[in-house]
Write a structure and sequence with these properties.
Layout (H helix, E strand, L loop, with lengths): L2 H22 L8 H9 L2 H6 L4 H22 L10 H10 L2 H34 L6
Amino acid sequence: MTRNAIATWSSCAIWILGFLLALVIPPSSKLIWIPDTLLLVGFFPVLFVWQPGWPWLIFGIGNMFIGFVLQVAFFLPDTGLPQTMVPVRAHLAQYHVPMIWILTGIGSTIYGIIRMVKHLTLWLKQKARKGKSPEGS
């Protein structure tokens, strides 16, 4: 089995577990953070296989943004929302823990930056080595 296949199947298994736990864990439970965590961590295997660092950066920034939106949704009063949005806000506030999204985003962003710096450093070293080759080559 190839690395891509292992990563894909690992991601699928983590996502399925996350979805199943989302159906089982009630919103009043202190464990309600686990389904979102698994759904987010499910992206890690496929991101690890993909070499560039920028997907980690995009993933991290996107998750931080979603986390901040969830945090705002938690504090929005129902009175200022259209009636059709009240159940949506209630669902977001009950089932999604903003800090999981924010912390996953911060970690992914930091890892993406480190990975990008590493790849850039290796690329610059390779360019420098090519520049020092003898002129007869």
